[in-house]
Write a structure and sequence with these properties.
With 448 residues, the protein is α/β, with parallel strands linked by helices. It is built from 16 helices and 13 strands. It folds into two domains: 251 residues, 3-Layer(aba) Sandwich (Rossmann fold); 160 residues, Rossmann fold (3-Layer(aba) Sandwich), CATH 3.40.50. Helix content is 41%, strand content 15%. The strands form two sheets. The protein has a seven-stranded parallel β-sheet, sandwiched between helices. The chain has a six-stranded parallel β-sheet with strand order 10-9-8-11-12-13, with helices on both faces. β4, α5 and β5 form a beta-alpha-beta unit. It is globular, with a radius of gyration of 23 Å. The relative contact order is 0.11.
Length: 448
């Protein structure tokens, strides 16, 4: 009698075939392009993935070792994307400002052209069943409608969208900062929800991944297909250092980000002034932006030059070296969609002290950091001063917070973990038994 086959003799199951749309994806940039790249490439470790991106990312993909035509396709939509970007640069009225305007023009004019060209190339193969799932990773903004969603549904290929994030309302008491950021369009941003194209996209989507509780609240009509997975993650190789946490004074703190009004570096200096003055705290400010001259004057006028260092712009790959010297990330930003820097700090064992609002407030849970209640500018300053005073009075409590923060990142927020979380959504889409999985526990989910 012939031998019976053993499990080791069985051929491996075919890998799921996924067409990943990542219009913005670039390993050499930061923010949304780095998120798009990181999610798309993490999925490649688990699935048969072909990435579709915009032509501006092509050279970076090639430098990273991906093979054009086999691993990715670059769509040339520059005929529309380039003039739209130039128009946005004029209308935003200042470098680094008016991001709602930039996003609106890109999502309503440039991205639809990209998708039309994408469908012209991949539509026949999607319709022929060459892919098990089509997943749009970027754009992250929920304001970018997709004509492909309905076409995929007609072809009986599930369309997954997300993580989507953005459009967090400006908190009360910060209208001056809103105006200084030239965010005029943010006053009417909610009108996008009235679009018939958006309704069609939502109906056609097999699953929608929200990156925050706020964004989830904008998709209540699809609650049965809605899940929460924050878009940001950590590459353990890039954030491999570990902060020393001696539990003693002085406490070294860091601020990381653009020096703009809503991120609050000036609020941080004001809150920390007593501790910077008496030597119980030192502060590194990593970043550059329009507030740099005012911060220099503020530091000099208050006699804090010995305890505050303005490092200026730091390449992203070098951030961990400076950040890992700190015990705390002190980050009073009042309007962060994702809060990637918070995860980066946690991955280094640096304890986040953040304003409890939007992205950071959902990433930091009890015991993994300190959350300061959102309020007016004066209330945020007072809240940060109180939080810092309590930590300075009991520095021995910081190491346990750091260990818990690091454990949370390891458990939920590496890119590989994120790929597995998304994989659970893929499995559910193809065999929807029970409710859609909710892979990541967030603080503040009561806001859904």
């Amino acid at each position: 009698m012939p031998d019976q086959p053993t499990p080791d003799d069985q051929p491996p199951a075919p890998r799921m075939r996924v067409l990943v749309i990542a219009e913005a994806a670039n390993p050499e940039w930061v923010s949304v392009p780095l998120v798009g790249w990181s999610i798309a490439t993490a999925l490649r470790a688990h699935y048969d993935v072909h990435i579709v991106t915009q032509i501006r990312n092509r050279d970076a993909f090639l430098r990273a070792g991906l093979v054009e035509g086999q691993d990715f396709t670059a769509i040339d939509s520059e005929a529309v994307a380039r003039p739209i970007w130039k128009l946005a640069e004029v209308l935003r009225m200042g470098k680094g400002k008016g991001w709602t305007m930039v996003t609106a023009l890109s999502s309503k004019l440039a991205y639809p052209y990209f998708e039309r060209k994408l469908w012209a190339k991949f539509g026949p193969s999607i319709q022929a069943g060459a892919f098990d799932i089509v997943h749009r990773v970027t754009p992250l903004t929920p304001t970018a409608n997709s004509l492909i969603a309905a076409r995929c549904r007609k072809a009986r290929v599930p369309f997954v969208m997300g993580p989507l994030n953005g459009g967090v309302p400006w908190p009360k008491g910060f209208d001056a900062e809103r105006r200084r950021e030239r965010e005029w369009l943010s006053y009417v941003r909610g009108a996008y929800r009235l679009s018939p194209a958006r309704s069609r996209m939502i109906r056609a989507s097999a699953a929608i991944i929200a990156g925050s509780c706020h964004t989830a609240s904008e998709f209540r009509a699809a609650r049965d297909r809605l899940t929460l997975i924050p878009e940001n993650g950590i590459d353990p190789a890039r954030f491999s250092l570990r902060a020393a946490q001696p539990g003693t004074l002085p406490i070294r703190c860091a601020f990381v980000g653009r020096l703009v009004p809503y991120k609050g570096p000036d609020m941080l200096i004001e809150a920390a002034e007593p501790f910077l003055r008496d030597g119980t705290m030192v502060l590194d400010i990593l970043g550059d932006g329009p507030l740099m001259p005012a911060l220099k004057d503020m530091i000099a006028a208050r006699g804090l030059s010995q305890s505050v260092t303005l490092h200026g712009w730091i390449d992203h790959k070098d951030v961990q070296t400076l950040l890992a010297r700190s015990q705390l990330l002190t980050f009073p930003s009042v309007r962060e969609f994702g809060g990637g820097v918070v995860l980066e700090a946690m991955a280094l064992g640096v304890v986040p002290v953040i304003a409890d609002y939007a992205g950071p407030g959902e990433l930091v849970t009890e015991g993994t950091g300190i959350k300061v209640k959102m309020g007016s500018r004066s209330e945020v300053v007072a809240g940060f001063r109180k939080a810092l005073a309590e930590l300075i009075a009991a520095p021995a409590t910081i190491p346990a917070l750091a260990a818990a923060a690091l454990a949370r990142v390891d458990a939920h927020f590496t890119w590989d973990r994120k790929a597995r979380q998304i994989g659970a959504i893929y499995d559910w889409v193809l065999d929807p038994k029970g409710p859609i999985p909710q892979p990541v526990p967030l603080a503040g989910e009561e806001g859904r």
